[in-house]
Design a protein that fits this description.
three-stranded antiparallel β-sheet; 3 helices; alpha+beta; single chain
Length: about 120
């Protein structure tokens, strides 16, 4: 007996896409029939009276958005003047942020001559 995959057939799960969508507002009562789903993706919120299998405006709330990824990202900067590349120490990063943006960075060679 051979098993064949049927494309476009009955989906395995019966969970609505609205369950995991950022744009959905779901009010669930105690009974299965006591359920209201509102889609907030459009200008005027739209009531969805059925379980959704596919949606072109679906936005998975289980996945982080770009802003959240930027908040947890590490800053990796190349070293100036041909130094080793890699991660920046916290103390060095604070020095760079506190430096006046109008004043260019001083090279290590110039700093050694000044002493």
């Amino acid at each position: 007996m051979s098993l064949r995959k049927v494309y476009g057939g009955t989906p395995v799960g019966n969970e609505s896409r609205c369950e995991t969508c950022r744009n959905a507002g779901i009010i669930q009562g105690f009974a299965e029939s006591e359920r209201i789903v509102m889609c907030g993706r459009y200008e005027k919120p739209l009531r969805i009276p059925f379980r959704v299998a596919e949606c072109s405006e679906y936005d998975d709330k289980r996945q982080p958005v770009l802003w959240e990824l930027k908040q947890i990202a590490w800053d990796v900067h190349p070293r100036e003047n041909g130094g080793k590349s890699g991660f920046v120490r916290g103390a060095d990063l604070e020095k760079k942020e506190n430096r006046d943006p109008e004043q260019p960075a001083e090279s290590p060679a110039a700093a050694a001559k000044a002493k």
